[in-house]
């Protein structure tokens, strides 16, 4: 362990501003649940982000030690630092960060980890490039890889490029996992903010096949009349 990483872990221990129980309350950590593997020490996300600002130059070797940690806050910290490094990196280091993320994707294994990083690294790196890896991830048996596939398109949405969001949403629209229902519905809602007509067109074709939660998230910003039109069209 490097001196910097040792210092960082001391900072984490001295920055506890919650409790493990309160931190874990946002996740299903029971036996057999999706976050059964996760441990929490009790640091809020705003505090993790503040700590990240002071360790932005952490090496990939030290980040590797954090990303494999059983402690959720340590993995989250590693990912936040990676997103900050990626946003200001030279092209060669962007590629290094992207490959690091790909190699360690099995450690991006909770919804908070995916949602804080997938669009800012995977999405940002694939924008205007070959995005076929998203289709591969969407077909994965691993729920986190499937969530990465759809959340990565949030970066595209922010650039008003919606094609891949709808493409991945179509692949996942009848997924069995509630975390995918929420993520797909969320990204569809975000796409609708950019182009409502495209969202309505997509929902008119697929809403009847969507799980209730996905459909509810996706249609959240539509008017009552628009929702009725969508449901009627999807059933015809």
If you had to describe this structure to a student in words, what would you say it looks like?
With 236 residues, the chain is mainly alpha-helical. The protein has two domains: 1-109, no CATH class; 117-236, Leucine-rich Repeat Variant. It has helices at residues 3-13, 20-24, 45-54, 60-67, 72-88, 91-103, 111-115, 118-126, 132-138, 143-151, 153-158, 163-172, 178-194, 196-206, 212-218, 224-235. Helix 4 (60-67) packs antiparallel against helix 5 (72-88) and helix 13 (178-194) packs antiparallel against helix 14.
Characteristics:
236 residues, globular, mainly alpha, single chain, Leucine-rich Repeat Variant
Summary of the model, kept short:
With 236 residues, the protein is mostly helical. It has 16 helices and no strands.
Present the secondary structure layout:
Elements lengths: L2 H11 L6 H5 L20 H10 L5 H8 L4 H17 L2 H13 L7 H5 L2 H9 L5 H7 L4 H9 L1 H6 L4 H10 L5 H17 L1 H11 L5 H7 L5 H12 L1
Helix pairs in contact: 3-5, 4-5, 5-6, 9-10, 10-13, 12-13, 13-14, 13-15, 14-16
Give the N-to-C terminal Cα separation. 62 Å
Give the biggest sheet: none
Q: Which CATH class of the largest domain applies here?
A: Mainly Alpha
**H-E order:** HHHHHHHHHHHHHHHH
Question: What general outline do the C-alpha atoms trace?
Answer: globular
Determine the CATH topology of the largest domain.
Answer: Leucine-rich Repeat Variant
Low-confidence blocks of residues? none
* Assembly type: single chain
> What structural class do you assign from the helix and strand content?
mainly alpha
SS element count, helices: 16
Q: Which CATH architecture of the largest domain would you pick? A: Alpha Horseshoe
- The count of DSSP E runs of length 2 or more, i.e. the number of strands, is 0
Tell me what portion of residues adopts beta-strand conformation.
under 5%
Rg over CA atoms, rounded to whole Å, is 19 Å
**Helix share, percent:** 55-70%
Mean pLDDT: 96
What number of structural domains do the residues give?
2
């Amino acid at each position: 362990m490097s001196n910097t990483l040792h210092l960082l872990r001391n900072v984490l221990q001295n920055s506890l501003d919650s409790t493990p129980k309160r931190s874990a309350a946002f996740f299903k950590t029971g036996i057999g649940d999706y976050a059964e593997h996760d441990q929490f020490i009790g640091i809020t996300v705003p505090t993790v982000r503040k700590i990240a600002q002071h360790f932005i130059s952490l090496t990939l070797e030290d980040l590797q030690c954090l990303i494999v940690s059983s402690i959720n806050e340590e993995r989250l910290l590693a990912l936040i630092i990676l997103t900050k490094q990626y946003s200001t990196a030279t092209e060669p280091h962007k590629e290094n960060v992207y490959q690091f993320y790909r190699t360690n994707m099995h450690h991006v294994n909770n919804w908070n980890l995916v949602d804080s990083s997938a669009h800012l690294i995977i999405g940002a790196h694939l924008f205007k490039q070959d995005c076929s890896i998203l289709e591969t991830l969407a077909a994965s048996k691993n729920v986190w890889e499937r969530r990465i596939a759809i959340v990565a398109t949030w970066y595209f949405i922010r650039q008003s490029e919606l094609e891949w969001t709808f493409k991945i949403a179509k692949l996942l629209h009848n997924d069995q996992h509630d975390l995918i229902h929420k993520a797909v519905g969320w990204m569809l809602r975000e796409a609708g903010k950019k182009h409502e007509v495209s969202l309505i067109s997509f929902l008119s074709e697929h809403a009847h096949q969507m799980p209730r939660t996905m459909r509810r998230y996706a249609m959240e910003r539509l008017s009552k009349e628009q929702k009725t039109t969508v449901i009627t069209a999807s059933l015809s």
